[in-house]
């Protein structure tokens, strides 16, 4: 919506009406009957014992795997020879005999991952994830409702009750990249939420952002770590204080949150940071409780920990929500460090504890006018013809998009990428697309989405 002609050429008041209308429609879709049912259920399941959680996972795994083996062509073909017995008392222990799948398998399998049993309309989404490889996924309405219920439980852990004020500072293009003066925010009355652009952060603009936050006085802020971290760093350097009185918590997501940045944000805003880990594939979720500990949410999905290096484990997840496109034993490509075995959290929940989440760590792009722009994977989302991609900045006035093309890459793809990048970075920086055979990985095999050497 934010890139539409109607929105871009409307006055602020009309833009806010459009935002509210879209949010109201989205709310009807995301918070329907299934949402209320799941929200009530997971309010209870967070307090289940470890044994109750294991029994719940066993039932859910049996259902999702049996449904996939019968109704999903990809799994039906691969599971046929395994002789799965869904009445076996030890089930789902045999899950270890099922093949692991990767993002490449899902991308190549395409619609063979879709269930032949119809459950209403499907909604497409895309992600580049931590590997920089675009992937299109489909969800049914029930899966969307369930995901939203878990997100609202995390917001409740941070102190937010539905209807209370919150601020949003993530990847939406609230105002054009070329805008040079505030306001860089719009009020979403349908959700009682002030939405901030994460693309206009600079030392010059930071005072206006902080003042607008304090005036709105949200109970919770939802933000990329790079966005709220930028403001925290500016406040520390400038000796500025946040003057809002209602803030109970800040919920970060979509990027790795280093401990140093977490502490800086907490000092600047005077509240706890609640970090949320999830992915578009919906096969694993990690939330932060009121005591600041990471919990692997075992009422969300079934997660196996595959040993890696340096005490880290790769997440291998099986989602419970989406029977229309189930992902079973999916290698997330993200790594965690579990807490010592047997350790319990003071919050009283039985969810396994995680010491460290190692996911996306991207640099921000720096622009000549002083802006710092983070989380730019939106440039590649939903674009056909891109196998992998990376953004590289070696000069202040230029950015290069390194693209590993597929056979579908053409001039239209090139034009779409340039338009997407221009939409978020504006006209003050040069853009180049360079086609490459491969993009270099980090030491642990991850593809870093943005590298800034300026």
Can you describe what's shown?
By secondary structure, this protein is of the alpha/beta class. It has three domains: 5-30 and 160-247, no CATH class; 33-148 and 280-358, ANL, N-terminal domain (Rossmann fold), CATH 3.40.50; 365-452, GMP Synthetase, Chain A, domain 3, CATH 3.30.300.30. It is 31% helix and 23% strand. It is built from eleven helices and 20 strands. It has helices at 5-8, 12-30, 33-45, 50-71, 73-79, 103-109, 141-157, 206-216, 225-238, 259-269, 411-425; strands at residues 122-127, 135-140, 166-170, 185-188, 193-197, 220-223, 249-253, 272-276, 286-288, 294-296, 301-307, 313-319, 330-338, 353-358, 365-366, 372-373, 386-395, 398-405, 430-435, 450-452. The strands form five sheets. A six-stranded mixed β-sheet has the order 4-5-3-6-7-8, with helices on both faces. A six-stranded antiparallel β-sheet has the order 9-10-14-13-12-11. A four-stranded mixed β-sheet has the order 19-18-17-20, with helices on one face. A hairpin with a 7-residue loop joins strand 1 and strand 2. It is globular. The mean pLDDT is 89.
Compact description:
The protein is an alpha/beta fold.
Outline the fold blueprint.
Blueprint: H1 5-8, H2 12-30, H3 33-45, H4 50-71, H5 73-79, H6 103-109, E1 122-127, E2 135-140, H7 141-157, E3 166-170, E4 185-188, E5 193-197, H8 206-216, E6 220-223, H9 225-238, E7 249-253, H10 259-269, E8 272-276, E9 286-288, E10 294-296, E11 301-307, E12 313-319, E13 330-338, E14 353-358, E15 365-366, E16 372-373, E17 386-395, E18 398-405, H11 411-425, E19 430-435, E20 450-452
Parallel strand pairs: 3-5, 3-6, 6-7, 7-8, 17-20, 18-19
Antiparallel strand pairs: 1-2, 4-5, 9-10, 10-14, 11-12, 12-13, 13-14, 15-16, 17-18
